Amino acid sequence: MNVDLRPSSGPAVRVGDYVSALAWSADGSRLAVGSLDGTTAIVDDDGLVQHPPLHEFGVTQVAWSPTADLLATGGQDGRVRLWSAADGTVLGEVTARGWCGDIVWRPDGAEFAAAIGNEVIRVATDGSEHLRHGAHPSTVACLGYTPDGRHLGAGLYGGVWWYQGDTKPTKRFEWKGSLLALAIAPNGKWACSGNQDASVHCWRLWSGDELTMNGYPAKVEHLAWDDRSRLLAVGNLGEVTVWDFSGKGPKGSRPKQLDGHARRVADVGFQPLSTLLASAGADGRLCLWDPTASRRSLLTALQFDEEIACIAWSPAGDEIAVGLADGLVTLVEVDDGRR
Questions:
Q1: What is the pTM of this model?
Q2: Is 181 helix (H, G, I), strand (E, B) or coil?
Q3: Nearest to 39, CA basis, from 15, 23, 18
C-alpha cells in the first residue's frame, strides 16, 4: 500500500503552552485545542483562533458533541464547562473537588459525562447537571459509553463501575489495580482498560468473561479500537502492540509489535473506517502503520523537531491534527489513494 504523509497547506497555530488535548467537530470543519496554560482555542479553515476564558492550572480535556455545535472542556481547576462553539458563550458549568480526568459524550449527543476527582457528573445539552455519581472510593480516571448509549462505564482503582440512568451502579467489573484508560469496542462486545500495573485487562460485555495481557514495560495509558472492533492498539514506551479480536479473540495469542519510536508513545489512533494506524511519540515521530500487513507494517513516517503530545484523526480520515509540546498545532495530510 502506498501512503504518504505531508504537512498540510492549511493553517498552523500556536497556543500558549504544551498541547494537552485535541478534538475535531463532527463535520471536520473545526478543531478544538486545549493547552496546559489554560487556553481553549477553536481553529477553523481560515486559521482563526477563539480564546474562551481560561481553565486555571491548565486544560485537561476537550470533547466535541457528536450531533451539535457544542464543546465540553475540563481542567485541573475541577471545572467542566459547556460552550457554544459558534460564539464562545458558556452554557453551563459544573464543579467538583479534584481535576477533570475525562469527558465523553453519549453517542446520541443528548448528554456528556465528566470525571472530576472521585465523582462522575452527567450534563445535559443546556449545560445543566442532571445526575452525579459520587462515593467512588478513588479518583475516576476514565469513562466510556457503550455504543447504544445505555450504559456508562467509570474506570478507577478496583475496576469499572457501570451505570444505567441511576445514581447506583448496575454492575461492577473488578480489577485489583488502578485503571488509567478505558476503551469500549465499537460493536459493544469488549471493554478494555490500560492499567497502572503495566497490563491491559479486557472484559466481554455483558458476560463478564475476562482476559489479561501482561508484560508491558510501563503503565498503559493509550488504547484505540479500529471501527470494526477487530484490532486493539496499545501504546506504551517505545512500541505499539496490536491485538487481534477477530475469530476466537486474542486469548492465547501474541500481539503484533510495531517498533518505530525511540521514546515513549504519546498517542495512538486508527483512521476512520480503516485499519491504518497512526502513532505519535515523544521522539517527535509520527508513524503510519498497516498492522494487517504480513511483512512491512510501517508505511511511512514524518519527523517533527519537537515532542508530539497528542494527535487526532479528522472525521474524513484525510488529515491528522498534531499537537506539540511547544504549543504548536499543525495538520498533516494523509494520501492513501482513496480519498
A1: 0.95
A2: strand
A3: 15
Residues 60-99: tens digit of each pLDDT = 999 999 999 999 999 999 999 999 988 888 999 999 999 9
Which CATH number is 221-339 given? Answer: 2.130.10.10
Q: Which three cell numbers stand for residue 95?
A: 464543579
pLDDT band of 51, cuts 50, 70, 90: confident
pLDDT (0 to 100) of residue 87: 84
Express each pLDDT in 246-264 by its tens digit.
988 898 889 999 998 999 9
* Integer CA distances (angstroms), 202 to 72, 88, 111, 117, 213, in order: 28, 39, 26, 24, 8
Q: Taking the domains of the chain in order of start, what are their residue ranges?
A: 221-339
C-alpha cell at 85: 462553539
**Residue 312 corresponds to which cell in the numbers above?**
487526532
Cα dihedral sign, 223-43-57-88? negative
pLDDT, tens digit, for every residue of 9-47? 776 888 889 999 999 999 999 999 999 999 899 998 777
3-state SS record for 16-47: CCCEEEEEECCCCCCEEEEECCCCEEEECCCC
Asked whether the beta carbons of 24 and 64 are under 8 A apart, the reply is: yes
The C-alpha atoms of residue 153 and residue 95 are separated, in whole angstroms, by: 20
Contact 13, 40 (CB under 8 A): no
Residue type for 291, please? P
Cβ neighbours of 333 (radius 10 Å): 16
Tally of CB atoms within 10 A around 136: 18
